[in-house]
Amino acid sequence: MRHRSAKYVAFATAAGLLLATAAGAGIANADVGSQSKSGGETKNEIVYVKTDASGKTRGVYVVNVFNADEKRTVDDPSRYTKVTNLTTDRQLSQKNGHVSVETTADQPFYYQGDMPADTELPWNITVGYALDGKPIDPDDLAGRSGDLDVTLTVTADTAAANVKDFAEAYVLQAQGTFPADSYDITDGGGATLATAGGNTVVSAMVLPGESKTFRIQGTAKDFQYSGWQIAAMSLDMAIDIRSQDTSKLTDQTDRLEQATDRLSDGSKELADGNAQLASGAAQLDDGLVSLADGAGKVDSGASSLASGAGTLSSGIGTVAQGASSLASGTGALASGASRLASGVHTLTGAVSDLSAAAPQLKSGADTLAYQLAQSSDDAAHPTLKDGWGSVRGGITQVKQGGDRYRAALQQGRQSAEAGSQTAGQQVAEASQAYQTALQSFAANPQSAEAQQALNQALQAFAQANQAAGAYAGSAKAMEQAESGYDQLGAGIDTLNAGAATLDVQFDAAREGTVANGAKQLASVVDSVATGLGSMPADSLRQLDSAADQVAAGAAQVNTGAGRLAKGAEGLRSGGAALASGANALANGTNGLNAGARSASEGASQLVSGARSASSGAKTLADGNAALAESVQGMGDEVLDELQKTIDRKLGADFKPHSFVVPTNTNVNRVQFTYVVAGVDSDTAANDAADGGDAASVDDSSDGSAESSDAGSKGSDSGTGSDSGFAALLERIKALFSH
């Protein structure tokens, strides 16, 4: 009898709902819906759905409950296949889509209407069984043992127009009762497990609009259970979100508003900074243009210097060549003078030889005087005077080119230093803009706008650093070039001073000892030549004395010419080094000129990029300002949307209407109860033992729109006695015994 008693849980659930409905006094009169001869009456509907053990619908029964303070006749809209009076013995009839009901005074009136088993329902229920991993029909499951899975699936029908509002507004509570000694449950599959006596009660809830599956797992032993009882009803919950503590939510929206304000302010500062960067980049571009012009002048001066150094080197070569020729001539002169002296001493025996040598000596003396005092008209045979003039002119060009180069270096260095200072200021400004963008990004790392602003600020900072580095490098290169030139300039000054000294010495040589010696030699030779022609024998002593003087003068000339030749060779070596250095300097200034022009082109690109960045930053600032404006009051908007979501989820917008006839809104409440049959090997015997009465429902009855049910005969006065309500419960018991 234990299993037979568990079977009546369904009956107890249905009776409880019926009692709760009858006891609820909140049934208000309405002006629309059911038509009554004495006025409108609202009702409650309890929809009972009987299914087999797999969830297939076997019958749909609706118990209609009217609470009236006086006896009235009501025409209730309907579409039943059969109607049964559950309160009195009065026969009910259904005609033209209405059931005529005569309520009783001061007590509920119940009547049952049967609907087709294929009636569209708000939820479809399926129950599946798997024994030892294989699906099994519930008819074959009773008394079986093994690992058993029971799967309950609730599927909400949110598409059908007549029932979707019930599925979307009602909460569904399912309860299954399993004997603990018949089914040891190890996993509720998301449902709640509770122990009630010797039974395990499985409870599962499905929220409005949802579909769910619960897989219960355990071990079966001689399995049987009483089935599922599933009730669905509206929540009737009104939650005012503004009456709750929403500070955590509103605090976050307030922080969002503050963050967008800061983002707007920061992006405006970024736009201002980019505008300043664009202005500074324009100044940088102008400075680099000036630098490029200065570098061009430096390059031109270095080229002139190289050209002058080449001319100087060529002139020094000519000087060295003339000095070498002079040294050779004076050597010959000294040798001849020495031989003259020797010959004079032997003049007595060699007058004829002296007469022959005198013209040669005079010619050499004349040549020397000519080399020192005259210029040649033949460039291929320059005189010593011509060579020295070329050397002196080359040294003068070197000095002038060096002065122009030094001035150009100073001007280029000053321009580079000014540009470096301007670039340093721009680096500081770009760094500040980068820090601001970085702080904005740290405050909201998920923001694509903050990420973009940070990337732009970083790029601007890198460009400013690059420009500053270029200026600093240019200034350093100018400074090093100027320092290097200081040494070269000192050499040029030394060369110029030496040339001046050599010039004085050359003039002194031309007008002093060498020239005088040459003149004396020429004069003496001339005298000798003259004297030889008319020389008496007693004049030999005079000739001897003159020969000694000639030898001494020739020795002096030879010594001076040797010194001049050595100086000229040193001058040749210095001139070659100067020409090489000037060429290297010219090559370096070419690189400097190219670098300056490249920097100028880069600055032009920087100006273009800075202007683009400034435009983008302004657009960003405008967008962030619009964003900050749009999030103002977001907290209230979020709460309003949250309230709407909660109301929708709780079915707050649900308007009660009849399940039977959806257009009938003269309904206070509609409840649903699904009774899913269990698995019991004694079911047939128990059904035979339970029997039934005249009010029990025949599942195979089709009924008709005009059917009627006389029910049990008796008084139709509706006195509300305890025996009348007991009879109602007996009828419901009979309903769930099948």
TrEMBL record:
The keyword Transcription regulation does not apply. InterPro entries: xxxLxxG_rpt. Keywords: Signal. Residues 1-30 form the signal peptide. The keyword Mitochondrion does not apply. Residues 687-722 are annotated as: Disordered. NCBIfam families: xxxLxxG_by_4. This is Methyl-accepting chemotaxis protein. It comes from Bifidobacterium margollesii.
